[in-house]
Specification:
It is a single chain. By secondary structure, this protein is an alpha+beta fold. The protein has one domain: Up-down Bundle (Outer membrane efflux proteins (OEP)). The protein has helices at residues 2-23, 89-94, 100-110, 112-131, 168-234, 240-274, 298-308, 310-332, 369-434, 440-472, 496-512, 516-520, and strands at residues 58-59, 66-67, 97-98, 138-144, 154-163, 284-285, 337-346, 351-359.
Length: 522
């Protein structure tokens, strides 16, 4: 009889416990399948689907905290995974040209930092899930043996459960959900870093390809000048020094061509490394339809940066986490309640007893004051960090626009003025030399000025396109750095220093070289 009563008490307690646990539900954020984003094929096109975070509100009715359907946390697109359209190396090696879209597909599949960023999100998902679990009940067995002073011999069981009050579990999940969103924004930022770095190196390879083509033409031109000098020397119309200078020019042009080829090889290695396939065979890249530099406006790009920057969204999510952690710390001051039920059966008196114990700590000395103060300070730190990120982005954008404007002006000036003038100057000088009107030194100056003008234009256009990628890509670079480090760490090879040196060389050559017409008329 006593055992049946004991079993009945335990059954009733388990039913009551299940009902109590069901009343305190956690935030449920569906871990939906990551959305796939298509990468841009060019700077001028709209980037991969932009993300916007709507204001979040928590519904605390009926003991629950749930994100409403219109305000669920944004699931930032994860790195594109290999699927039916994945690109294989065999496809690369057999292609005539390799497109930017194919390179982006390779990078999204193979870049290890994207796997790291995805794993960090999964780790936080685990923490979020764990924080929503209710404390386990405790069950135990007790035995009392009879003695002379207490002729009692009983066996029994006890069951205890800690009941969480003040909606601590939902508040804990609310804090963890903000961490999930922060890491999702970090994951999206890393994906954009990989894509931006790939595009920067893509334009670097295109510029190197063009430089090789120009230097090949210059080698042919210098060889033609050597042939002309040799013919005129045989006709005794020019001294042997002209032939020697022409030979020096040919050898110098060949050295420059070799350097251009080395630069192309290094640029390709960097491109293949960013794609995650260092063994990618050298392949001709498909070029954009023209060298047009996109027209960008500082204020428009700044507003876009404020609205869409994953770095800024990550900082804002960290601030939201701070507020949630503060609410969680305030709730921790309210003690939990522990209920224990003990039931035993005395074999001596053949009686069953059941007792209930209710316990909770009195918040007299410890009311979680220290953690509350810390959480409030963390909120102030996070608020300051949002402002700091905005200032950093503005500073980066200002520097990028300085380089963008400088490169664009140089490219336009070289294209419209310097390059046509140097080309015409070379033609006139060559014609004058064949007619015996000028010396070979003038041909040498004209040819070098034309060569440097062409290379400087390629450098200016390439630099402008690369900086445009940085600007349109929300200042996110550093695709091989861990996502936790952030951007503005890696430096891109072939930047402004080489471009400025080439432009100075063009200016120096122009200062030394007079137009043939002016020389003839002296």
């Amino acid at each position: 009889m006593g055992h049946r009563i004991l079993a009945g008490l335990l059954s009733l307690y388990v039913v009551a416990l299940s009902a109590g646990c069901a009343q305190t539900s956690a935030i449920r954020i569906g871990k939906s399948e990551p959305r796939r984003s298509d990468a841009r094929a060019g700077v001028g096109e709209s980037d991969t689907s932009r993300l916007s975070v709507k204001n979040k509100s928590l519904n605390t009715e009926a003991g629950e905290i749930q994100l409403t359907s219109s305000e669920e946390p944004p699931l930032v697109p994860a790195p594109t995974e290999a699927g039916s359209g994945e690109l294989s190396l065999e496809h690369n090696s057999g292609s005539v040209v390799l497109t930017l879209a194919e390179l982006e597909s390779l990078a999204l599949q193979n870049n290890p930092t994207l796997s790291q960023a995805g794993a960090a999100v999964d780790q936080e998902w685990g923490a979020y899930r764990q924080s929503g679990l209710y404390p386990n009940p405790q069950i135990g067995y007790l035995n009392t043996s009879a003695n002379q002073s207490a002729p009692k011999q009983s066996n029994g069981v006890f069951l205890s459960q800690e009941f969480v009050t003040a909606k601590k579990i939902p508040l804990s999940q609310a804090a963890d959900s903000q961490e999930v969103k922060r890491l999702q924004w970090d994951q999206e930022a890393q994906r954009m870093r990989v894509i931006n770095d790939l595009r920067i190196r893509y334009y670097e390879v295109l510029g190197a390809q063009k430089a090789v083509a120009v230097n090949r033409q210059l080698v042919s031109l210098s060889e033609e000048s050597l042939s002309t000098a040799e013919k005129q020397f045989l006709g005794k119309s020019v001294p042997k020094t002209d032939v020697l200078q022409a030979q020096v020019l040919v050898n110098s042009s060949r050295i420059t061509l070799a350097e251009a080829n080395h630069r192309l090889e290094a640029a390709w290695e960097q491109l293949a490394t960013m794609a995650g396939v260092p063994s990618l065979p050298v392949t001709t890249l498909s070029e954009p339809g023209n060298d047009e530099i996109p027209d960008l406006d500082l204020e428009s790009q700044w507003q876009q940066l404020l609205a869409e920057s994953p770095q800024l969204k990550s900082a804002e999510s960290e601030l939201d986490h701070g507020w949630a952690a503060l609410r969680q710390s305030e709730a921790q001051a309210i003690p939990n309640v522990t209920v224990q039920v003990v039931a035993d059966y005395d074999r001596v008196t053949q009686s069953t007893t059941a007792s209930t114990l209710v316990a909770l700590p009195l918040p007299i000395f410890n009311r979680n004051q220290g953690n509350i103060d810390k959480a409030m300070a963390d909120v102030r730190v996070d608020q300051a960090d949002v402002a700091r990120v905005q200032l950093v982005l503005r500073d980066q954008l200002a520097d990028s626009f300085r380089r963008y404007k400088s490169s664009r002006v140089q490219a336009e000036t070289l294209t419209k003025s310097i390059l046509p003038a140097s080309e015409e100057n070379l033609k006139l000088t060559m014609a004058a030399y064949k007619g015996g009107e000028v010396g070979f030194r003038d041909v040498l100056f004209a040819q070098e000025a034309f060569a440097q003008s062409q290379i400087a234009r390629i450098e200016a256009v390439t630099e402008a396109q690369k900086v445009a990628v940085e600007i349109a890509g929300l200042q996110l670079t550093g695709g091989l750095n861990p996502a936790a480090i952030g951007s503005a760490i890696q430096t891109q090879g072939g930047g402004g220093s080489r471009q400025r040196a080439l432009l100075q060389e063009v200016q120096d050559r122009a200062a030394k070289q007079l137009l043939p017409a002016a020389q003839i008329g002296r």
